[in-house]
């Protein structure tokens, strides 16, 4: 076995262990950062940069730890989230909501943060093979974000067929996380590590990586 392969397997194994070891945490509690659970805040170093294996898979900035905390809380509470995805001819329309007020607030905070990141080009990505396409082509995306009492409604469209495919594939990735929680995140993290140092951009010419296409059905829900 080549030395590089050994490193990839070792890092992937460390990721599985770390993600599996993070305990489920409730919302609320003192000292939380923008909705972070205490366990996620500790894992991220609380006031410092995001740490652990996940830190290797995203660019670090001032909001990384807080965004990771929101992701952790949503994955922990994934069974309380209801999501529908409608594939449009030129993009997607997603409805992501929860009857739990705290989960609904976390959904809105996450959507708002990621929308700002897309607008500014500040990529935050620890699991997705499709986000690089969207961030690299953000000027080709038209977005409409509506906050509801229970979450958000997001419509994103593009005139570029490659970007449309990425939008639809990414919606499928997120739905998988809603369905499978931490298990879905671990799969995504391992897949990104297996791509090597270049990540999704390493062998990206155009279009979506194999296996990331969304189902042919016009709508699916959790």
Description:
With 222 residues, this protein is α+β, with helices and mostly antiparallel strands. It has one domain (3-200). Helix content is 44%, strand content 15%. It contains seven helices and five strands. It has helices at 3-21, 38-43, 64-76, 101-120, 131-136, 161-180, 182-194; strands at residues 81-88, 91-98, 141-147, 151-158, 219-221. Strands 3-4-2-1-5 form a five-stranded antiparallel sheet, with helices on one face. The longest helix has 20 residues, at 101-120. The protein is globular, with a radius of gyration of 17 Å. Mean pLDDT is 74; it is low at 1-50 and 204-222.
Overall morphology:
globular
Report the mean per-residue pLDDT as an integer.
74
- Global structural class: alpha+beta
Largest sheet: 5 strands, antiparallel
Cα separation of the termini: 41 Å
What is the β-strand count?
Answer: 5
Beta-strand percentage? 15-25%
Give unreliable regions as ranges: 1-50, 204-222
Compute the number of structural domains.
1
Instruction: Note the run of SSEs as H and E.
Output: HHHEEHHEEHHE
- As a whole number of angstroms, the C-alpha radius of gyration is 17 Å
Largest beta sheet: what is the strand line-up? 3-4-2-1-5
Query: Given the structure, what is the number of helices?
Result: 7
Percent helix, as a range, is: 40-55%
């Amino acid at each position: 076995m080549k030395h590089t392969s050994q490193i990839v397997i070792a890092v992937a194994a460390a990721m599985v262990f770390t993600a599996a070891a993070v305990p489920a945490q409730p919302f609320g509690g003192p000292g939380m950062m923008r909705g972070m659970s205490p366990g996620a805040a500790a894992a991220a170093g609380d006031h410092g940069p995001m740490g652990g294996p996940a830190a290797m898979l995203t660019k670090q900035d001032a909001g990384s730890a807080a965004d990771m905390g929101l992701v952790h809380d949503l994955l922990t509470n994934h069974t309380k989230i209801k999501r529908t995805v409608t594939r449009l001819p030129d993009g997607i329309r997603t409805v992501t909501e929860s009857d739990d007020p705290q989960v609904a607030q976390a959904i809105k905070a996450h959507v708002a943060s990621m929308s700002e990141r897309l607008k500014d080009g500040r990529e935050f990505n620890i699991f997705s093979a499709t986000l690089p396409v969207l961030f690299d082509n953000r000027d080709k995306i038209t977005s409409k974000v509506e906050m509801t009492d229970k979450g958000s409604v997001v419509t994103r469209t593009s005139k570029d067929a490659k970007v449309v495919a990425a939008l639809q594939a990414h919606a499928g990735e997120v739905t998988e996380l809603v369905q499978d929680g931490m298990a879905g995140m671990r799969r995504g993290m391992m897949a990104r590590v297996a791509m090597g140092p270049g990540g999704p951009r390493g062998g990206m010419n155009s279009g979506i990586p194999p296996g990331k296409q969304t189902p042919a059905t016009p709508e699916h829900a959790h």
